[in-house]
Design goal:
The protein is mostly helical and 199 residues long. It is built from nine helices and no strands. It has one domain.
Length: 199
Amino acid sequence: MLAIIRDAGWPIWPLIATSFLALTLIVERLLALRRTRVLPPAVLDDVLGLVQKKRITPDIIDKLDASSPLGRVLATGLRHRHRTRSATQEALEATGHSVAHDLGRHVGAIGTIAAVAPLMGLFGTVVGMIEIFGAYSPVGNDPSTLAKGISVALYNTGFGIFIAIPAMVFYRYLRTRIEDYLHDLEQAAIRLVDTLHDE
């Protein structure tokens, strides 16, 4: 591996840094977007039960707000439970936008890395080609210099693609997971509003 990095030349270092950044962001988002962390089981049913029993207190709302994205949405609805249905829905919609923003944090950066990594690899290819043409001479060519230029060109292109493929896969996967969560959060908000205003 060290030999590959040496042969790839200096353009490989930005790619290595990019790969570590992508790995860090992907792991962070996978941990943050676990279903039990975003949509804790039984929370919605527990809250609806408390609403029906009229046992909602400010302390319960504050704890709910700090517990999870689902908790934030439900806490917003509970804070606005004495307002009209439309006012409650507007407040829930505003919180939903905020939650969606938080869930999608860093996901755009992963998509950017997926798009930029091949271009960074292509830059390495250009550097390698410059070295190849710089070593070319009508009188005689230095095989070691030509080989080094080819190594720089191919290794950087390959490594750029190697970074881009999993980054794009995880980018699409995380986007889909977030969309699923937002749909579930929307359904939870609808159930809460129906319960609050059907009392």
